[in-house]
UniProtKB/TrEMBL annotation:
Top-rank taxon, per record: Eukaryota
Designated name of the protein: CAP domain-containing protein
Source organism per UniProt: Echria macrotheca
A Pfam family that the UniProt record links to this protein: CAP
Keyword ATP-binding recorded: no
Signal peptide extent: 1-20
Database matches in InterPro entries: Allrgn_V5/Tpx1_CS (IPR018244), CAP_dom (IPR014044), CAP_sf (IPR035940), CRISP-related (IPR001283)
UniProt xrefs under PROSITE patterns: CRISP_1
Keywords noted in UniProt: Signal
SCP domain mapped to chain residues: 53-179
Amino acid sequence: MRRLFLLALSLLQAAVGGNASPTHDQAKEAQTVTITAAPSIPSTAPQFVSERSFTSAILNSTNFFRAAHNATPVVYNATLARFAAGYLADNRDCAFDHSGGPYGENLAIGCSDAQGCVDAWGNEGREYDFDDPGFDHDTGHFTQLVWKHTTDVGCGRKLCGESGWFLVCEYYPRGNVIGQFDEEVQRAVNAGGRAAALPFRRSVMLLVFVSISLAL
Ligand SMILES: *[C@@H]1O[C@H](CO)[C@@H](O)[C@H](O)[C@H]1NC(C)=O
Ligand SMILES: *[C@@H]1O[C@H](CO)[C@@H](O)[C@H](O)[C@H]1NC(C)=O
């Protein structure tokens, strides 16, 4: 039996200039909602259930996209992972919102496995305009993922009933800093190579985009 459910992705953008005072910082929040068809909620997906599989899937997929865009591999950081897990534990009703924490943050809900979530973020790179670098709601997960100065990642996940798995990844130092996209987000090292050829998951049927902005 196939049924419809939502794969929703969300990212956090920091519009923090190098020397800007925090009171002038602005953050924009963007949500991308992908509607997918899947056989069922993968409540037993090994990449979500097993800590070891989870960590290695996140690292492998994240570093796969980073390598393709000339960024050094990130390491898995327990502080960031604890922050993400703590946020999800406090978020009892699984509200699809950002934590408001100090890190870069990508959210996804409804993926079949951890790699699928990171692939969905990474595949936004196909829409990124390297000739006009900057933040865009359609590509913000990708730009955080491959941001060159980000060195650490840590993620948490939680099963949210019918919505499926809710994945939260924290990035440090945070990416998506306005004015730095040109240096921080690089073209595919091997245009036409493996990363460019990475197929979309068969289940992804439609991308719908919703965004809101807010000033902090
Ligand atoms: C590593 O991640 C990439 C991108 O998500 C994926 O294509 C590849 O199959 C993964 N490799 C392993 C060994 O899981
Ligand atoms: C983990 O990330 C935090 C950022 O919150 C950083 O202060 C810390 O140095 C990192 N830990 C390691 C071992 O790099």
